């Protein structure tokens, strides 16, 4: 493979690629109860109990609101008919997907044919870094169906696309390719903002794709200059009442994608704090890009600075994981709620690495902590 990413290097990062689920104990316990329901009557009782509670966490607020909406949709039987994209956006994608971000004060949601900021931001960064160098042809502006946007910097944290059930294979394929391009562009923006290009391997960019009642979350990570595209999660919501396991899986994925998307910018904040701390400790320090040739101006070596940045991201990741169940514990509570002490056999992530013509790799990773191996 020459200078391309080696299989050994890829598998060193494989465990990082599949750690997608983020769920605290209280949310996991309530989702376990929903999953174990025997019928709609029991599900309604859980909903009533949830709405009697006060001062609930944002995650539990989302669970009870989403549960209320899906019960209305199931009872009306409107999910069983053929609906257009606008109906899905108003009645399904909005309440079950977008509303999970409402309590995030630093982020805003944009809807229906809004322009993605990824390409525009990248062109702007190129022009600022090399004002005398002519820019390549402008990227075509991408209109997206959903964007989660950082209010302070104006950049999209995540984008999403919607398609109704009756969609051609070409349209679906084009949407997948479009989402992939947006993730790559977003990584380009992130990489230009980092003090060292190699730090980009700690970041993932995600996109969401709704196809009728199917939701797919895809991610991209850049390792040694190679973009690895992978499927982080996939779920199909049943159009009729009864599949409570699918409903719980959908809620877990949506709660997780909210936290994972925001995690990217938490990591950037950690790097910025580290740069500020270094500037106080070393007044002569110039936090320059790794591509700069003027590192002799710094009172620290390039390796020292990079190690400091890596420690900052590592600590940010540790802080991010605090309060969340480890995948094995999450698996026990959600999959085996009756006897959480019983040892469960886990399905090892199946990783298929396929090289594309562009030199990038596509990898499909099985969702961890959801599927159970049958004895």
Annotation keywords:
alpha+beta, 10 helices, disordered C terminus, 375 residues, 8-stranded mixed sheet
TL;DR of this structure?
46% of the residues lie in helices and 17% in strands. By secondary structure, it is of the alpha+beta class. The chain is globular, with a radius of gyration of 22 Å.
Q: How would you describe this protein?
A:
This protein has about 375 residues and is an alpha+beta fold. The protein has 10 helices and 8 strands. The chain has an 8-stranded mixed β-sheet with strand order 1-2-3-4-5-6-8-7, sandwiched between helices. The longest helix is centred in the last third of the chain and has 38 residues, at about 245-280. The chain is globular, with a radius of gyration of 22 Å. About 35% of the residues are buried. Residues about 1-5, about 285-300, about 335-355 and about 365-375 have low confidence and may be disordered.
Instruction: Give the overall shape.
Output: globular
Helical stretch tally: 10
Helix fraction, binned, reads: 40-55%
| CA-atom Rg in angstroms | 22 Å
Q: What composes the largest sheet?
A: 8 strands, mixed
Mean pLDDT metric: 76
SS content category: alpha+beta
The count of strands amounts to: 8
Order of helices and strands: HHHHHEHEEHEEEHHHEE
Unreliable runs = 1-5, 284-298, 337-353, 363-375
State the strand order across the main sheet: 1-2-3-4-5-6-8-7
Distance between the termini: 39 Å
